[in-house]
Amino acid sequence: MIPLRGAPAKHRWPWVTVGLIAVNLAIFLYQLHIGPQASTDLFYQKGAVASKLSRLQVLSFKQSVWLLPTMFSSLFLHAGWFHLIGNMWFLWVFGEALEDDLGPGRFLGFYFFCGFFACIFHVLAASSLAVPLIGASGAIAGVLGGYLIRLPKSPILTMVFWHLRPETVYIPAFVWLGLWLALQFYGLKGGGGVAWMAHLGGFFIGLLTVNLFTPLTPNPAPAQGKAAPKKKPAPKGKKK
Predict the structure, then answer these.
(1) Do 50 and 113 touch, CB atoms closer than 8 A?
(2) Is residue 143 a contact partner of residue 94, using CB atoms and an 8 Å limit?
């Protein structure tokens, strides 16, 4: 299944979602510019290395200060075009409506909040791993979890393949995201070099905390029509 379109924004253009996509694309183009060897060095410098992050308590304060930002900078590094396009596609499909629901500032805070805790889940699950964690998928998994809570019944336009023939259908968000979640648990069992625990951690953090990022005053519902005009009182008759 390939998601094509989520719920459209109703109140504002998704500037934060578009901005995050643009920044990720710009950084990836920079990686292509510096070449594969320099990109690998960048991954180890700015990616989240679990074996280092798990030793924060025994490291010096100076080392810790330099390591903690990697839990955020890792969200903007990608290993290839497929990795980048897959993440940014999901961010666009599910981020647009959620940003509209939460508001741009809260959505951005929620995005980084989920990415941070997705990284923590990865470190707890693979504390001895010396390979850097890179990619925005942990934060985007949090967006999916938030989407499930805030917009569970919204239709997701999806391309499916029946007998090798592509067709488009609308699938409710809770069904689509339930299938996505099942795939993550299946992947966790098989491994394959993907940080599945970061995906699951980000998703459940988003699921449990999205309501903490909702605006105090909900967005006004779109007007359904004009109010009926009030009837004027009938004029009183003259006294004789």
Answers:
(1) no
(2) yes
Integer CA distances (angstroms), 84 to 31, 146, 151, in order: 12, 21, 25
Question: Is pTM, for the whole model, over 0.70?
Answer: yes
The secondary structure of the chain in percent helix, strand, coil, rounded to multiples of 5, reads: 60, 10, 30
Mean pLDDT estimate for the chain: 88
Could you count the other beta carbons within 10 Å of the beta carbon of residue 76? 19
Task: Single out the residue of 173, 36, 14 nearest to residue 105, CA to CA.
Answer: 14
Tokens of 6: 């989520």
pLDDT in tens, 139-162: 999 999 999 999 999 999 999 988
Q: For residue 13, give both structure tokens.
A: 């253009």
Domains located in the chain, CATH noted: 2-213 (1.20.1540.10)
**Token digits for 239?**
């006294």
- Which among 190, 2, 28, 18 is positioned nearest to 86, based on CA atoms? 2
